[in-house]
Amino acid sequence: MGVDERPVNPKFLAKQVTRPRAQVEQQLRDAILTGQFRPGDKLPPETQLADQFGVSRPTIREALGSLVSAGLIRKVPGVAGGSFVNSVTTESLSQTVRESVDIILRLGALDIEEITVVRRVLEVPAARIAADNRTLEHIERMQAVVERQRTTTIDDPDIPSYDLQFHTAVGDASGNRLLGAFVRALHSSTSPASYLDVTPRVARATVKQHIAIAAAIEAGNASGAAEAMEQHLDYVLEYSTNCSWLPAR
User: Fold this and answer.
1) Measured between alpha carbons, how far is 130 from 171 in angstroms, rounded to an integer?
2) From CA 63, how far away is CA 68, in angstroms rounded?
């Protein structure tokens, strides 16, 4: 995507807050999400942003780094480089959706069954659609995660992370960025794998279920992918601890 050379000069304000980086990041995020900066636009230079916000350049760099991590902007090196607004991605959408999900969840505890119901609404259709829209990159992502799961042990602290990676790969494979963002946001906010009563038998079963989901998606078997995902979610619910969930504070 080419860079739009039109002048972009939204008005930023220097605000007295506890964390200057947070107010810089939030105002830049808002400017991007409200369309003041459009995909392909170049953000003002760090020196100009530092003057506008009344903060140091390292603070600006930290804020820009957070926006890069969120998928909202990309950094281009060189004389003609700078910080450019990305096109819409599942990562940038997910960050926005996750913030809303976190707020909703903080209003009251949810149990694992409620979370699983929402997962069915999102992930069963996602698996079905993914079987039609998956690319080689999506298949390779799922297979890479499954391979890590096959070779790890039940005391591996990264098990919830592997689960997040697998299910977000399925969401992304649907080709629907908003659906993928919702799947990613729900997993990131609730970490459902953390509530699984992991024993060697349960661990083997869940990995086999992931393998079955990935195989059906790779084969283009839409009904098989949906069925495999539904069976997986039923199993996860059966072997999850029956406790209320509250977001980490």
Assistant:
1) 7
2) 9
Q: 239 is written with which tokens?
A: 């072997």
| 3-class secondary-structure state, position 82 | strand
Question: Token match 């600006």: residue?
Answer: 60
Calculate mean pLDDT across residues 207-235: 97
Residues 183 and 126: beta-carbon distance below 8 Å = yes
CB-CB contact of 130 with 217 (8 Å)? yes
User: Cβ-count burial of 206 within 10 angstroms (0-12 exposed, 13-18 middle, 19+ buried)?
Assistant: buried
Task: Quick: pLDDT tens for 142-172.
Answer: 999 999 999 998 888 888 899 999 999 999 9
**Confidence label for 104 from pLDDT (cuts 50, 70 and 90):** low
Chain-centroid distance, C-alpha 242: 26
- Residue 84 pairs with which residues in a beta bridge? 42, 74
Report which secondary-structure segment, H or E, holds 127: helix 112-133
Kindly state the helix (H) or strand (E) to which residue 74 belongs, with its residue range.
strand 73-76
